[in-house]
Amino acid sequence: MILTVTPNPSLDRTYEVPALRRGAVLRAAADRVDPGGKGVNVSRAVAAAGRATTAVLPLGGAEGALLERLLREQGIDVAGVPVSGATRVNVAVAEPDGTLTKVNAAGPALTAAEAEALLGSVGDRSAGADWIACCGSLPRGLAPEWYGRLVARAHAAGARIALDTSGPSLTAALRERPDVVKPNTEELAQAVGRPLATVGDAVRAAEELRGLGARAVLASLGADGQLLVDGSGTYYGTAPVTRVRSNVGAGDASLAGFLAAGGDGPDALASALAHGAAAVRLPGSAMPAPGDLEPSTVTVTRDVPGDRALTEPAPGV
């Protein structure tokens, strides 16, 4: 069972338009609303694969009630923590060439009591969990150290932690030695404070995160594939995609595939790549089912192309 923690969940509404024109009235060719938030998406992908998952998240207002209903309809056990503010609604506009424009709301501010209740709910539901995936940005009211507290509590209870966050929240949690962290290229560059221009740059940055406390680093390099850097060495993998429909939630689907395959080694990396590639071929933030996967297109190797230039280099911060 994979338990997910999403401190700042959302409802994600996606509109597909022929072209995005600033200042114009646009008519959508299609639209959909999905449960959103990085941990929520991990739970959705795990459930789509037919596996057990529990989503721990704050829920508020009519938006929170709709989010809970949508998750339960997808076979997800929901451990909702009531909060006074309304769950946020995010909007994405998708164009036929794969360009995606997103507007993410800030979300409600959590009180100290609500933040503590969220930690308590994780503890109450963590028994029997193979992994606890802590994902996404922290809402207003939660200090950057909140994830670190969660990692420490989970480890004390004997659970394994996957952490997908960035900035001060990631930095503060590294000292608690999360079992795996999952940055993308930009987040990896931000964490080490320098630009990343090649796959080799990304490998060195991942090794630095391991030196700061991460036991393993699963790094998403966008169109350039993924890296897994752990105690056994470095693996590099790719899964070509001919047409990108939407990349919303692709990284979350990738993490779900990694954890569902055990969360360790090249087989788990291959599963992560297959799930991420399948997600970008789907509309909105739809999560892939087993029938959407194309494992034959995945390649994983220890032969890392260190000099290969990244398609989207990341500036350091």
From TrEMBL:
MF (Gene Ontology): 1-phosphofructokinase activity; ATP binding
Listed Gene3D superfamilies: 3.40.1190.20
Superkingdom of this protein's organism: Bacteria
Coiled coil: none
CDD domains reported for this sequence: FruK_PfkB_like (cd01164)
UniProt keyword list: ATP-binding, Kinase, Nucleotide-binding, Transferase
Carbohydrate kinase PfkB domain mapped to chain residues: 22-288
Positions of region (Disordered): 286-317
InterPro entries: 1-PFruKinase (IPR022463), PfkB_dom (IPR011611), Ribokinase-like (IPR029056), Tagatose/fructose_Pkinase (IPR017583)
GO biological process: carbohydrate catabolic process; small molecule metabolic process
Xref: Pfam families: PfkB
GO CC terms: cytosol
Enzyme Commission number, as recorded: 2.7.1.56
Family stated for the protein in its record: Belongs to the carbohydrate kinase PfkB family.
UniProt protein name: 1-phosphofructokinase
Organism of derivation: Streptomyces mobaraensis
Lineage: Bacteria, Bacillati, Actinomycetota, Actinomycetes, Kitasatosporales
